[in-house]
Amino acid sequence: MPLTLADIQRWNSGAIRDVSSALAKRGASADDVKAGLTKLPLVNTWQGTGGDAARASLDELSAYLAAHGEEMNELSSATRESADDIDRIKASLAAIDADARREGFSIDPASGAVTPLHTDMVGDPIYALQQADLETRIHQLLHAANTADAELARAISGATADAAGRPDDPRVRDALTKPLPEDPQQFHDLWEALTSEQKDALYQRDHSIGNHDGMPAVDRDYYNRLTLADQLAAAKTAQAHADALKNQHPDWAAGREPNVRMPGNYAANKAAYAAWKEKYDAATAGAKNLSDLQAVDKSVGDFPDRKLMLLDTTSGEMAHAAVAIGDPDTASHVSVTAPGLNTTVHGSIGSMTEEAANLQRETYRQLGNSPGHELESVSTIAWIGYDAPQIPGWDEKAASLAGAWGVSHDDMAKVGAHHLAGFYDGIKASHEGVPADVTAIGHSYGSLTTGLALQEPGNHGITDAIFYGSPGIEATTPGQLQLPEGHVFTMETPDDPIQAVYDSKPWLHGLGALPPPFGPLAATVVGGMDLTGAGDFGPNPATNPNFTHLETGATAVPNGQGGTMSLGGASGHSDYPRFMDDGTPRTTNYNIAAIIAGLDDNAVRQK
Questions:
Q1: pTM of the complete model
Q2: In terms of DSSP bridges, do strands 306-312 and 320-325 run parallel, antiparallel, or are they unpaired?
Q3: What angle separates helix 217-248 from helix 125-157, to the nearest 10 degrees?
Q4: Which own/partner contact pairs does 161-169 have at CB distance under 8 Å and 24+ positions apart?
Q5: Which residues contact 586 (CB under 8 A, 6 or more apart)?
Q6: Crossing angle for the helix pair 48-103 and 13-37, to the nearest 10 degrees
Q7: Does 379 lie in the same domain as 521?
Q8: Domain boundary pick from 142, 157, 172
Q9: SS3 letters across 448-516
Q10: Residue 365 and residue 324: Cα distance in Å, rounded?
Q11: Burial class, 93, CB count within 10 angstroms (exposed 0-12 / middle 13-18 / buried 19+)
C-alpha cells in the first residue's frame, strides 16, 4: 500500500542506523573467521585423502563466509543509505509543512490534500499557484518516499536466501549469485530446486523474473502481479504529479513557452520554465505506461482462473503482456494467440482476454459433447509479446510513420517470433504430466509472426497451427512449420481486405515498367517498401492447397445433443476471434475451438 505523509512522520532513521551498524559488525566477523581458516596448520600439512577432504570442506566454508560477509556488508550499506534517504525526506516534509503554514494552508497527513485556511483565499490566482506548488512538492515527496521504502524492502529481502540456510545444490548457489539460464528447460529445472525464500530473493533482485520462460504459470502469475501492483502505483503517482504540474502551468503544458512579452523578468521566466519542464517531462515519462498497466490490471483483476504470464514495460517500444485463461501447466489443450497490426496492450489486452475466455468455454463445450473427452482441460492464452506495427491514425498513442514500413516488412515479426518461440518452449518445459496439445494461432501480421516462430530452431511442442486474415507466413508446407500434414489450418473471409495484399502485388510491381521517371521511381518505392504489405511474406496461406481451409460463413453444426446449432458468419478482417453479441460462437470461433480440442474432424471445411 502506498505510503502517506503520516507514515513518513512516523519513520525512525535512528533505528535503521542501528540495524546497519549491527549488519556491518556481522559482516566483519564473517571476514575475520574466513581469514582465520586460511591460517590453520592443517591447510598445508595434512596430506592424503583426509587432508584433501578437509581442505575441500574448508574451501566450501570459506566461500560461504565470503559470500555471507559480502551480503552483510551490502545490506549494511543499503540500510545506511535508506536512513539517509529518510532524513532527507523528513526534512523536505518539514519544509513543506512550514511553507504551508506560512502561506495559510493545511495539509491532511492521511490524504496529502492541501486546503486553504481562509475562505477569501479560494479562487485567488496567487493562492492557487501556491496551492499547486505545495501539491506538486507533496506528490514528489510521496514518490521519493515510496521509492526509498521499496529499495529498503528489496535490500532486506535480499537477505532471505542467507536466512533460509546455505543451499547444498551448487546450481542453487549459482542462481543466487550468477545470471539465470536463458534456456526454458534449464531454467525450469533450476527453479524447481529453489525454496520459496530463494525464489523471493531472486524476485527482489529482478522484478521481471516472472517473464522468464520455463517458470510455472502459477509463479509467473504471482510475481508478475506483484510487479503490476508496484508499477501501477508508481505510474499513478507520476500521473498525479504530471496533472498537478499541468494545472500549475496549463499554458506551458500546451507547449506555449514564456516569451519576451510576458510580464516580469524574461530570463527568470525562462529559468522557471526550464525547471518546470524537466519535472513535467519526468512525470509524464513515469506515467507513460499507465493506460497499459490499467488495462492489464482490469484483465486479470480478481479472476482466480486467469494468470498473468507476461508483463514487460521496458524491453520494447511498447508494453507487452500475456494472460492465460486456465492453467497451461496442467491443461490437456493449450492455445496461444498472437495478434497483428495496430495491437497494443492498452487497446487490446482486454478484448483479447475476453475472446480467450469465450474460446475456452466453447472448447469445453465441444469436449463435453465428445465421449471420452469430458475430463480434458483447456487453457487459452492471449499473447501480446512483441511490438506490432502501428499505422498512423489508428492509435494515437502508438502510431508512427514507421508503422507503414513495419507492416510491409518482416523485421518486427522476426523479433516477435523469437520471443514467441521461447514462450512456446516455456509452456512445454513447465507442463506437468503428459505433454499438452498446443495450438499456435496467428491473426493478420501476427500470423507472420507465428509462422516465423514455428520455423525457429528446436521442437516447440506445437501440435496444430491456425492462421486467419494472413498476409503470408513465409512457408508453403506444413513441414516448413515443423508440423505434419493436416495440422495447418487457415481461414479468410470473402471480404477480408487482406486479399488486396495478393491482388495488388502484380499491379504494384508492374509500375516499374512505366517509362522514366515514373517507372524507376515506382520500382524504388515498391522495391524498398511495399505499401500494401504484399510480396515478401510468401503466397496466400488461405489458398495454398498444402493447408486445410476452414469455413468462415454462417452454417449449422451438430450441438452434441441430437440437434443442431446455428453459427454466425464472420466478415472483414477482425471478426475471426470475436463471438456474436449474445455470446454464441461464429463459425470461425467454432472451428478454432475444434482444432484446440483436438477434434479436427468437427471443424467445418471451406465449401
A1: 0.74
A2: antiparallel
A3: 160
A4: 161/197, 161/198, 161/201, 162/68, 162/71, 163/197, 164/195, 164/197, 164/198, 166/64, 167/195, 167/198, 169/193
A5: 567, 568, 569, 570, 575, 576, 578, 579, 580
A6: 160
A7: yes
A8: 157
A9: HHHHHHHCCCCCCCCCEEEEECCCCCCCCCHHHHCCCCCCEEEECCCCCCCHHHHHCHHHHHHHHHCCC
A10: 19
A11: buried
Residue 26 located in a structural domain: yes
Tell me, letter by letter, the H, E, C secondary structure of 323-356. EEECCCCCCCEEEEEECCCCCCHHHHHHHHHHHH
CATH code for the domain in which residue 306 is found: 3.40.50.1820
For residue 572, give its domain range: 290-602
Paired with 381 in beta bridges are: 324, 336
Pairwise CA distance, residues 240 & 339, whole Å: 32
Closest-CA residue to 483 (of 501, 467, 461, 503): 461
| Helices 266-286 + 125-157 axis angle, to 10 | 40
Which three three-digit cell numbers place residue 254? 500546451
Residues in the chain, how many?
607
| Close Cβ partners of 289 (under 8 Å, ≥ 6 residues apart) | 231, 235, 313, 319
Say what the pLDDT of residue 52 is: 56
The domain tally of the chain equals 2
DSSP for residue 382: E
Q: What are the pLDDT digits (tens) for 513-558?
A: 444 544 443 344 344 434 433 447 889 999 999 999 999 999 999 9
Percentage helix, strand, coil, to 5, in the chain?
Answer: 55, 10, 35
| Residue matched to cell numbers 511495399 | 530
DSSP-based three-state secondary structure for 306: strand
Strands 464-468 and 378-384: unpaired
Q: Which residue bears the cell 517507372? A: 519
Tell me if 252 is assigned to some domain.
no
Tell me if 433 sits within 8 A of 468, measured CB to CB.
Answer: no
Q: Which residue has the cell 492471449?
A: 382
38 in a structural domain = yes
Question: Is residue 367 assigned to a domain?
Answer: yes
Q: Are residues 152 and 296 in the same domain?
A: no
| Residue whose C-alpha cell is 486546503 | 115
Cell numbers for 127: 493562492
Of the three residues 130, 157, 184, the one that is the final residue of a domain is: 157
pLDDT, tens only, 105-151? 999 998 888 898 888 887 776 777 788 888 888 888 888 888 777 77
E strands in 392-470: 437-443, 464-468
3-state secondary structure of 130: helix
Cell of 476: 508453403
